[in-house]
Amino acid sequence: MSAIKFELIKTCKQTGARLGKIQTPHGEIQTPIFMPVGTLATVKAMTPEELKDINAQIILSNTYHLYMRPGHELVEKAGGLHKFMNWDRPILTDSGGFQVFSLGPLRKIKEEGVEFRSHIDGSKHFISPEKAIEIENALGADIIMAFDECAPYPADREYVKNSLERTTRWAQRCKDAHKNTERQALFGIVQGGMYKDLREQSAKEITDIGFPGYAIGGLSVGEPKPIMYEVLEYTTPLLPEDKPRYLMGVGSPDDLIEGVLRGVDMFDCVLPTRIARNGTAFTSQGKVVARNAIYADDFRPLDPECDCYTCKNYTRAYIRHLVKCNEILASRLLTYHNLHFLLKLMEDVRTAIQEDRLMDFRNEFFEKYGYTK
Ligand SMILES: Nc1cc(CSc2ncc[nH]2)c2nc(N)[nH]c(=O)c2c1
Ligand SMILES: [Zn+2]
């Protein structure tokens, strides 16, 4: 028996988009969904109560980072991640594969696993698929990711083929090592770079092993958007219709909509929280770089069409002032707004699917946001 139950409610007649529901041990998730990222057991600058105010349904945390600091044993001793961070809704943990591979020359990939040096103190570590599952079981997230290699972009065919085949062998080892199937759903991750035949091979191998949900990995790694959309176009149909599909590391407003149109159900990205800390806001008319002098005496809200706490109570002029003074409140107000913006966007997308008008919604949003058609 798996820890989650996915219900496919509707497929949009105009597009490949799906409306769904995922039941988890910590509550229900409506899809398509955007998942705020809380790498170190906190969605930076937000309290759990503020996340609930903006209807965040599930957040992400990270195996590699929490293994490094404070250590998964401590989190387990605290009663698991939910208790430790005071978040009683669903959590998803990434396996650390991506983070370890991002360490670049500091890591060595072997069949057994990955040897790497800590980005904190340079100490030597080794993570195998079994170790990653042990850490994720200790953290206790409702959805956990298999330990995979996210091939860099660009990468030649030979490398990508060898890498996806090792990721398949690791996926089987993760499934064999995962004990907590009743309370933690293990998702497989499809790789294969930007090569159609390798994506088909990886999708077949990973779905043959069998998981309650599937992620599309190896995208949003610097490839041009049209290539990401093309890979999605031929990869999502290879995944079972009755299981959730998660596109890792995506994304910006346009990528979320284009991903939903191509049958993706779940997304996560550090963008909304990261650009907030750099003083930039998503708005329905495109990005607002708050630091820009043009906002010095602009007493309108960040987004006149937004009804969030930030937009109801503060002006661009005030937020620019906070950003210029590097005030902590700048990060808080901008993060609150950016997360609300993406969560509201996904709520509007779900409504558009329900009403079979997602393509019209896309065109209206792109027009207003300033994206080219
Ligand atoms: N682009 C991208 C992003 C992430 C990180 S998702 C994430 N982790 C923590 C926060 N967000 C990926 N993670 C894994 N395991 N595999 C991938 O192929 C991959 C690709
Ligand atoms: Zn707002």
UniProtKB/TrEMBL annotation:
<dbReference type="GO" id="GO:0046872">
    <property type="term" value="F:metal ion binding"/>
</dbReference>
<dbReference type="GO" id="GO:0005829">
    <property type="term" value="C:cytosol"/>
</dbReference>
<feature type="binding site">
    <location>
        <position position="308"/>
    </location>
    <ligand>
        <name>Zn(2+)</name>
    </ligand>
</feature>
<feature type="active site" description="Proton acceptor">
    <location>
        <position position="94"/>
    </location>
</feature>
<feature type="binding site">
    <location>
        <position position="337"/>
    </location>
    <ligand>
        <name>Zn(2+)</name>
    </ligand>
</feature>
<feature type="binding site">
    <location>
        <position position="218"/>
    </location>
    <ligand>
        <name>substrate</name>
    </ligand>
</feature>
<feature type="active site" description="Nucleophile">
    <location>
        <position position="268"/>
    </location>
</feature>
<dbReference type="InterPro" id="IPR004803">
    <property type="entry name" value="TGT"/>
</dbReference>
<dbReference type="InterPro" id="IPR036511">
    <property type="entry name" value="TGT-like_sf"/>
</dbReference>
<feature type="binding site">
    <location>
        <position position="148"/>
    </location>
    <ligand>
        <name>substrate</name>
    </ligand>
</feature>
<feature type="region of interest" description="RNA binding; important for wobble base 34 recognition">
    <location>
        <begin position="273"/>
        <end position="277"/>
    </location>
</feature>
<comment type="pathway">
    <text>tRNA modification; tRNA-queuosine biosynthesis.</text>
</comment>
<keyword id="KW-0819">tRNA processing</keyword>
<dbReference type="InterPro" id="IPR050076">
    <property type="entry name" value="ArchSynthase1/Queuine_TRR"/>
</dbReference>
<dbReference type="GO" id="GO:0008616">
    <property type="term" value="P:tRNA queuosine(34) biosynthetic process"/>
</dbReference>
<keyword id="KW-0328">Glycosyltransferase</keyword>
<feature type="binding site">
    <location>
        <position position="311"/>
    </location>
    <ligand>
        <name>Zn(2+)</name>
    </ligand>
</feature>
<dbReference type="Pfam" id="PF01702">
    <property type="entry name" value="TGT"/>
</dbReference>
<feature type="binding site">
    <location>
        <position position="306"/>
    </location>
    <ligand>
        <name>Zn(2+)</name>
    </ligand>
</feature>
<feature type="binding site">
    <location>
        <position position="191"/>
    </location>
    <ligand>
        <name>substrate</name>
    </ligand>
</feature>
<dbReference type="GO" id="GO:0008479">
    <property type="term" value="F:tRNA-guanosine(34) queuine transglycosylase activity"/>
</dbReference>
<feature type="binding site">
    <location>
        <begin position="94"/>
        <end position="98"/>
    </location>
    <ligand>
        <name>substrate</name>
    </ligand>
</feature>
<keyword id="KW-0808">Transferase</keyword>
<comment type="function">
    <text>Catalyzes the base-exchange of a guanine (G) residue with the queuine precursor 7-aminomethyl-7-deazaguanine (PreQ1) at position 34 (anticodon wobble position) in tRNAs with GU(N) anticodons (tRNA-Asp, -Asn, -His and -Tyr). Catalysis occurs through a double-displacement mechanism. The nucleophile active site attacks the C1' of nucleotide 34 to detach the guanine base from the RNA, forming a covalent enzyme-RNA intermediate. The proton acceptor active site deprotonates the incoming PreQ1, allowing a nucleophilic attack on the C1' of the ribose to form the product.</text>
</comment>
<feature type="region of interest" description="RNA binding">
    <location>
        <begin position="249"/>
        <end position="255"/>
    </location>
</feature>
<keyword id="KW-0479">Metal-binding</keyword>
<dbReference type="InterPro" id="IPR002616">
    <property type="entry name" value="tRNA_ribo_trans-like"/>
</dbReference>
<comment type="subunit">
    <text>Homodimer. Within each dimer, one monomer is responsible for RNA recognition and catalysis, while the other monomer binds to the replacement base PreQ1.</text>
</comment>
<keyword id="KW-0862">Zinc</keyword>
<comment type="similarity">
    <text>Belongs to the queuine tRNA-ribosyltransferase family.</text>
</comment>
<keyword id="KW-0671">Queuosine biosynthesis</keyword>
<feature type="domain" description="tRNA-guanine(15) transglycosylase-like">
    <location>
        <begin position="15"/>
        <end position="369"/>
    </location>
</feature>
<protein>
    <recommendedName>
        <fullName>Queuine tRNA-ribosyltransferase</fullName>
        <ecNumber>2.4.2.29</ecNumber>
    </recommendedName>
</protein>
